[in-house]
From TrEMBL:
Protein family (similarity comment): Belongs to the RecO family.
Protein name according to UniProt: DNA repair protein RecO
Top-level taxon in the UniProt lineage: Bacteria
SUPFAM superfamilies the record matches: ArfGap/RecO-like zinc finger, Nucleic acid-binding proteins
Protein backbone atom coordinates (compact mmCIF):
# COMPACT_ATOMS: atom_id res chain seq x y z
CA UNK A 1 0.00 0.00 0.00
CA UNK A 2 1.37 3.42 -0.86
CA UNK A 3 1.03 6.25 1.60
CA UNK A 4 1.18 9.99 0.98
CA UNK A 5 1.55 12.80 3.47
CA UNK A 6 -0.38 15.98 2.58
CA UNK A 7 -1.38 19.10 4.45
CA UNK A 8 -4.79 20.46 3.53
CA UNK A 9 -7.96 22.27 4.52
CA UNK A 10 -11.42 20.67 4.63
CA UNK A 11 -13.68 22.48 2.16
CA UNK A 12 -16.62 20.03 2.20
CA UNK A 13 -17.87 17.25 4.45
CA UNK A 14 -20.49 14.57 3.81
CA UNK A 15 -21.70 12.02 6.33
CA UNK A 16 -21.83 8.46 5.02
CA UNK A 17 -22.74 5.12 6.55
CA UNK A 18 -23.24 4.90 10.27
CA UNK A 19 -20.31 6.97 11.46
CA UNK A 20 -18.12 7.66 8.43
CA UNK A 21 -17.39 10.80 6.47
CA UNK A 22 -16.15 11.71 3.03
CA UNK A 23 -14.35 15.02 3.05
CA UNK A 24 -13.02 17.19 0.25
CA UNK A 25 -9.67 18.74 1.09
CA UNK A 26 -7.72 21.46 -0.71
CA UNK A 27 -4.04 20.53 -0.96
CA UNK A 28 -1.06 22.29 -2.52
CA UNK A 29 0.07 19.14 -4.34
CA UNK A 30 -3.14 17.90 -5.97
CA UNK A 31 -5.74 20.66 -5.60
CA UNK A 32 -9.02 19.12 -4.44
CA UNK A 33 -8.91 15.55 -3.19
CA UNK A 34 -11.61 13.31 -1.69
CA UNK A 35 -10.81 11.40 1.46
CA UNK A 36 -12.83 8.71 3.22
CA UNK A 37 -12.55 9.00 6.99
CA UNK A 38 -13.79 5.79 8.56
CA UNK A 39 -15.58 6.15 11.90
CA UNK A 40 -14.71 9.86 11.97
CA UNK A 41 -18.07 10.66 13.60
CA UNK A 42 -17.51 8.38 16.58
CA UNK A 43 -16.81 10.35 19.75
CA UNK A 44 -13.40 8.83 20.38
CA UNK A 45 -12.21 8.80 16.77
CA UNK A 46 -8.73 10.18 16.25
CA UNK A 47 -9.87 11.28 12.77
CA UNK A 48 -12.76 13.42 14.06
CA UNK A 49 -11.10 16.81 14.50
CA UNK A 50 -9.28 16.65 11.17
CA UNK A 51 -12.52 15.81 9.34
CA UNK A 52 -14.34 18.98 10.39
CA UNK A 53 -15.13 21.74 7.92
CA UNK A 54 -12.45 24.50 7.93
CA UNK A 55 -9.87 22.35 9.78
CA UNK A 56 -6.32 22.54 8.42
CA UNK A 57 -4.41 19.33 9.11
CA UNK A 58 -1.46 17.16 8.30
CA UNK A 59 -2.84 13.91 6.85
CA UNK A 60 -1.38 10.47 6.34
CA UNK A 61 -3.37 8.92 3.48
CA UNK A 62 -3.38 5.74 1.48
CA UNK A 63 -4.83 5.53 -1.95
CA UNK A 64 -7.90 3.36 -2.48
CA UNK A 65 -9.59 2.58 -5.79
CA UNK A 66 -11.47 5.88 -6.04
CA UNK A 67 -10.69 7.88 -2.92
CA UNK A 68 -7.90 8.43 -0.52
CA UNK A 69 -8.41 6.82 2.88
CA UNK A 70 -7.37 8.66 6.00
CA UNK A 71 -4.92 6.71 8.07
CA UNK A 72 -4.13 9.41 10.62
CA UNK A 73 -4.25 13.17 10.98
CA UNK A 74 -2.74 15.91 13.08
CA UNK A 75 -4.78 19.11 13.27
CA UNK A 76 -2.68 22.24 12.72
CA UNK A 77 -5.46 24.85 12.91
CA UNK A 78 -9.09 23.91 13.65
CA UNK A 79 -10.50 27.38 12.79
CA UNK A 80 -13.31 26.64 15.23
CA UNK A 81 -14.03 30.39 15.64
CA UNK A 82 -15.68 30.27 12.22
CA UNK A 83 -18.16 27.57 13.15
CA UNK A 84 -19.13 29.42 16.34
CA UNK A 85 -20.08 32.71 14.67
CA UNK A 86 -23.01 32.76 12.24
CA UNK A 87 -21.77 35.80 10.30
CA UNK A 88 -18.24 34.40 9.89
CA UNK A 89 -19.76 31.04 8.96
CA UNK A 90 -21.84 32.56 6.14
CA UNK A 91 -18.88 34.46 4.67
CA UNK A 92 -16.63 31.40 4.90
CA UNK A 93 -19.27 29.12 3.33
CA UNK A 94 -19.33 31.49 0.37
CA UNK A 95 -15.52 31.39 0.20
CA UNK A 96 -15.48 27.58 0.25
CA UNK A 97 -18.13 27.43 -2.49
CA UNK A 98 -15.91 29.53 -4.75
CA UNK A 99 -12.98 27.20 -4.07
CA UNK A 100 -15.03 24.03 -4.57
CA UNK A 101 -16.38 25.23 -7.91
CA UNK A 102 -13.17 26.57 -9.36
CA UNK A 103 -10.27 24.44 -8.17
CA UNK A 104 -9.84 21.20 -10.09
CA UNK A 105 -8.84 17.76 -8.88
CA UNK A 106 -5.25 16.82 -9.57
CA UNK A 107 -4.15 20.40 -10.25
CA UNK A 108 -1.40 21.80 -7.98
CA UNK A 109 -2.92 24.72 -6.06
CA UNK A 110 -0.28 26.03 -3.70
CA UNK A 111 -1.07 29.73 -4.13
CA UNK A 112 -4.82 29.22 -3.82
CA UNK A 113 -4.34 27.15 -0.65
CA UNK A 114 -2.13 29.91 0.77
CA UNK A 115 -4.78 32.52 -0.08
CA UNK A 116 -7.48 30.42 1.57
CA UNK A 117 -5.40 29.85 4.71
CA UNK A 118 -4.57 33.56 5.01
CA UNK A 119 -8.19 34.56 4.48
CA UNK A 120 -9.58 32.12 7.04
CA UNK A 121 -6.88 33.17 9.51
CA UNK A 122 -7.88 36.84 9.22
CA UNK A 123 -11.57 35.97 9.54
CA UNK A 124 -11.21 33.63 12.50
CA UNK A 125 -8.53 35.46 14.50
CA UNK A 126 -9.07 39.18 13.84
CA UNK A 127 -11.90 41.72 13.76
CA UNK A 128 -11.21 43.01 10.26
CA UNK A 129 -14.41 43.82 8.32
CA UNK A 130 -15.72 40.56 6.89
CA UNK A 131 -17.09 42.17 3.74
CA UNK A 132 -13.69 43.72 2.91
CA UNK A 133 -11.77 40.51 3.65
CA UNK A 134 -14.15 38.56 1.41
CA UNK A 135 -13.85 41.06 -1.48
CA UNK A 136 -10.05 40.86 -1.27
CA UNK A 137 -10.24 37.06 -1.33
CA UNK A 138 -12.61 37.04 -4.33
CA UNK A 139 -10.56 39.43 -6.44
CA UNK A 140 -7.26 37.77 -5.64
CA UNK A 141 -8.77 34.35 -6.37
CA UNK A 142 -9.97 35.58 -9.76
CA UNK A 143 -6.43 36.66 -10.49
CA UNK A 144 -4.99 33.27 -9.45
CA UNK A 145 -7.59 31.53 -11.63
CA UNK A 146 -6.29 33.47 -14.62
CA UNK A 147 -8.88 36.28 -14.76
CA UNK A 148 -6.78 39.15 -13.44
CA UNK A 149 -8.37 42.52 -14.26
CA UNK A 150 -6.09 45.26 -15.62
CA UNK A 151 -5.96 47.79 -12.78
CA UNK A 152 -2.48 49.38 -13.00
CA UNK A 153 -3.49 51.98 -15.57
CA UNK A 154 -6.06 52.79 -18.23
CA UNK A 155 -6.40 49.69 -20.46
CA UNK A 156 -6.49 51.92 -23.52
CA UNK A 157 -3.94 54.74 -23.13
CA UNK A 158 -1.90 53.46 -20.17
CA UNK A 159 -2.42 56.58 -18.07
CA UNK A 160 -1.99 55.77 -14.38
CA UNK A 161 -4.13 57.85 -12.04
CA UNK A 162 -6.62 57.30 -9.23
CA UNK A 163 -9.11 60.07 -10.04
CA UNK A 164 -11.74 59.87 -12.79
CA UNK A 165 -11.17 56.19 -13.47
CA UNK A 166 -13.93 53.79 -14.43
CA UNK A 167 -14.12 50.02 -14.12
CA UNK A 168 -15.03 48.75 -17.56
CA UNK A 169 -16.50 45.24 -17.73
CA UNK A 170 -16.11 45.08 -21.51
CA UNK A 171 -12.33 45.42 -21.28
CA UNK A 172 -11.92 43.79 -17.83
CA UNK A 173 -10.07 46.69 -16.27
CA UNK A 174 -9.74 50.39 -15.57
CA UNK A 175 -10.38 53.01 -18.19
CA UNK A 176 -9.86 56.78 -17.98
CA UNK A 177 -12.50 59.39 -18.69
CA UNK A 178 -10.92 60.35 -22.01
CA UNK A 179 -10.89 56.79 -23.36
CA UNK A 180 -14.31 55.85 -21.99
CA UNK A 181 -16.86 54.66 -24.50
CA UNK A 182 -20.16 55.98 -23.12
CA UNK A 183 -21.92 52.85 -24.31
CA UNK A 184 -19.57 50.43 -22.56
CA UNK A 185 -20.62 48.71 -19.36
CA UNK A 186 -18.61 50.68 -16.84
CA UNK A 187 -18.92 52.75 -13.71
CA UNK A 188 -16.98 55.57 -12.10
CA UNK A 189 -14.89 54.57 -9.09
CA UNK A 190 -13.85 56.50 -6.02
CA UNK A 191 -10.06 57.13 -5.95
CA UNK A 192 -9.86 54.96 -2.82
CA UNK A 193 -11.40 52.03 -4.70
CA UNK A 194 -8.84 52.39 -7.52
CA UNK A 195 -6.00 52.38 -4.97
CA UNK A 196 -7.48 49.30 -3.28
CA UNK A 197 -7.78 47.41 -6.58
CA UNK A 198 -4.11 48.06 -7.35
CA UNK A 199 -3.11 46.98 -3.85
CA UNK A 200 -5.16 43.76 -3.98
CA UNK A 201 -3.72 42.74 -7.35
CA UNK A 202 -0.08 43.66 -6.74
CA UNK A 203 0.84 43.25 -3.08
CA UNK A 204 2.66 40.20 -1.69
CA UNK A 205 0.45 37.52 -0.06
CA UNK A 206 1.81 38.34 3.42
CA UNK A 207 0.52 41.94 3.26
CA UNK A 208 -2.70 41.27 1.38
CA UNK A 209 -5.11 42.22 4.17
CA UNK A 210 -3.04 45.04 5.72
CA UNK A 211 -5.13 48.00 4.60
CA UNK A 212 -8.38 49.69 5.50
CA UNK A 213 -11.03 51.16 3.24
CA UNK A 214 -14.13 53.36 3.49
CA UNK A 215 -17.55 51.67 3.49
CA UNK A 216 -18.33 53.38 0.14
CA UNK A 217 -15.24 51.85 -1.46
CA UNK A 218 -15.93 48.44 0.08
CA UNK A 219 -19.38 48.64 -1.50
CA UNK A 220 -17.88 49.50 -4.90
CA UNK A 221 -15.42 46.61 -4.63
CA UNK A 222 -18.39 44.36 -3.88
CA UNK A 223 -20.26 45.49 -6.99
CA UNK A 224 -17.19 44.96 -9.17
CA UNK A 225 -16.37 41.60 -7.66
CA UNK A 226 -19.88 40.15 -7.86
CA UNK A 227 -20.33 41.14 -11.48
CA UNK A 228 -16.78 40.19 -12.47
CA UNK A 229 -17.20 36.70 -11.00
CA UNK A 230 -20.53 36.26 -12.76
CA UNK A 231 -19.04 37.31 -16.11
CA UNK A 232 -15.98 35.08 -15.92
CA UNK A 233 -17.24 32.07 -13.98
CA UNK A 234 -20.81 32.22 -15.21
CA UNK A 235 -22.44 31.68 -11.84
CA UNK A 236 -24.14 33.95 -9.37
CA UNK A 237 -23.08 33.11 -5.82
CA UNK A 238 -25.99 33.54 -3.40
CA UNK A 239 -24.83 32.37 0.02
CA UNK A 240 -24.19 35.95 1.19
CA UNK A 241 -27.89 36.70 0.63
CA UNK A 242 -28.45 35.02 4.02
CA UNK A 243 -26.75 38.04 5.61
CA UNK A 244 -29.61 40.26 4.47
CA UNK A 245 -32.16 37.87 5.95
CA UNK A 246 -30.26 38.02 9.23
CA UNK A 247 -29.97 41.82 8.83
CA UNK A 248 -26.20 41.61 8.86
CA UNK A 249 -24.17 43.68 6.44
CA UNK A 250 -23.72 42.08 2.99
ZN1 LIG B 1 -7.13 56.23 -21.18
Amino acid sequence: MSYVNYKGLVIKEINTGEADKIITVLTAEEGKISIAAKNARRAKSSLGAGSQLFAYSDYMLFKGKELYNMSSCQVIEPNYEIRNDIEKLIYCSHILELILDNVQEGEPSEEILQLLLNTLYVISKTNRPLNLVTRVFELRLMSLLGYEPHVISCVNCGKAQDENMYFDFDSSGLICKKCLNPRSRSFLLLPGTVKALKYIMCISPQKLFNFSLSQESIKELGEISKRYIKEHIGKEYRKLDYLKQLKLDG
